[in-house]
Amino acid sequence: MPFIPHTDDEVQQMLQTIGANRIADLFDEIPKELLIDDLRGVPDALSEMEITRLMRERAARDGSPLCFIGAGAYEHHIPSVVWDITTRGEFYSAYTPYQAEASQGTLQTIYEFQSMITSLTGLYASNASLYDGASALAEAALMAVRSNRRNKSRRVLLASGVNRTYRKVAEAIAGSQGLTFDELPLEQATGVSDLNALSAEGDAPVAVVIQQPTFFGTLERIDEITNWAHAQGALVIAVVNPTSLSLLKAPAQWGEQGADIACGEGQPLGVPLSSGGPYFGFMACAEKLVRQMPGRIVGRTTDLDGKPGFTLTLQAREQHIRRSKATSNICTNQGLMVTAATIYMSLLGHGGLQQVALRSEERTRALLQRLTAIDGVTLVFSGAHFHEAVLQLPQAVAPLLDKLAADGILGGYDLSVEYPELGNALLVCATETKTDADLDAYATALGRHLAND
Amino acid sequence: MNELPGDLRFTAEHEWLRQEEDGSVTIGITDHAQAALGDLVYVELPEVDQELESGNEMAVVESVKAASDVYAPMSGVVLAVNEVLADDPEKINADPYGDGWIVRIQPGDESVDTMSPDEYQEFLDTLDD
Lengths: 453, 129
Hints:
The complex is a heterodimer of chains A (453) and B (129). Chain A has helices at residues 8-18, 48-62, 80-86, 104-121, 133-147, 164-174, 196-199, 222-231, 335-372, 397-406, 436-452, and strands at 66-67, 125-126, 155-158, 180-183, 186-187, 192-193, 207-212, 235-240, 261-265, 281-285, 297-302, 308-313, 378-379, 388-392, 409-410, 413-414, 425-429. Chain A folds into three domains: 8-60, no CATH class; 66-75 and 349-451, Aspartate Aminotransferase, domain 1 (Alpha-Beta Complex), CATH 3.90.1150; 80-344, 3-Layer(aba) Sandwich (Aspartate Aminotransferase, domain 2). Chain A is globular and about 80 Å long. Chain A is α/β, with parallel strands linked by helices and 453 residues long. Chain B is of the alpha+beta class and 129 residues long. In chain B, 20% of the residues lie in helices and 33% in strands. In chain B, the strands form two sheets. In chain B, strands 1-2-3-9-8-5 form a six-stranded antiparallel beta sheet. Chain B has a three-stranded antiparallel beta sheet with strand order 4-6-7. Chain B is globular. The two termini of chain B are 15 Å apart. Chains A and B meet through loops of A and strand 6 of B.
């Protein structure tokens, strides 16, 4: 369906019809001081040629380094057919399909996506996606408050392994709505939440957030924390890596009652790293909470002739229906990313996704073996992990990462900034994309830089 | 239009009120309101013991296409809510003056303007134009 902008003549005709002279007249009820003429910091428009050149130059600066950074975004192999199909004209739109009569293909794609997310999480319903993993957590926290009115607390308790960037985003979005976020302490030996700290908890929180695997790649004692949270009258929000769900216990199986809400970053499912975005957030929930889920759900139904069809449903709380009653004002469906993820998951199937997860974990073990063989490099946390782990280095992390970058190696995520208590700690990740030669190259370079100092 | 039960009072916001013998007041939405909303799929109820202020939001009824406020027609304290509506919101469609009641409150002191069944019927007739 082509989207052709209006010509100047058409704009004039429309203005005349409603009795306005200029476009600006349409906004004359907005106080002058609230109007912004120029967007500060945004340069003037460029031609297509200029933009193309600028983007090529900037993309070339990234080069093609060997990436060992995970920390929430993961380099997985994306079969070329994924984006060949995704960028076909029939799919290539980030537009949310409100008009069922014109959007059956896109609506069915989203319906399939939701079915796959409920299959991975084990939960009852999934929405059509959110901006990203971090804002999905913020929305999940707000949803937990709406769904758990018997609990008067406005405090959300985060397990220690929750990505701190997610926490910052959640505070920025939900903090202004009166939610506070506290963190459980970390058990230093294992890198998971300290269960002893649970008994010291005072006021029952409204929700407990558990990330599995944790930001450090370790595996939380999800059953114990889930059961404790439910005993306190709190809801459980699971932040999960979708790739890991093909191996690890589905959130619906956590503890005796299962997590109430699961959310996370969908980028590992066929979305390229792209220097940080666009990505998409996913969210699924138990049946009793479905009315409080933000965003849109696509449902399957039958028309008057009994033919199957797809339509947006559960949208009475959407901002285009009733702004003041909207469950969220930032719940935009990331249509194009979701299309890619749906195609990625449908091509891989459950078995394929499991192979990706197993191979990534195996590659990370192989990397850790090589790196910990270097003098002074040790593994920080004992216990199980998933395709990511924390190393202790004998020197400051940042300068080493600079030296590795000069070798074309992105050596990992420097934890010493956000977690100074961990010392010279480096979070490393290997996925199925890394060959033995890649791992050797990293180990050789790191060994050389450490020996030279 | 169904006949309006004679023992009820009505508001311009399409709510009905029934004075109970113990001094409490039961509140629901009218047959006209449920018909206008269509099939209800969800009802958000207030909490028991919650204090209601006249004219403020008391409950939300959701149909497939819209979420609509139900306003407290008078101030008071919530004595009971119709828990059945949590699983069976369509009770309001089926029996708005009976099984589809929404809350029972202990009313505050002030008196409120309500309409008799005949007055409400006249009011509805003016809306039909």
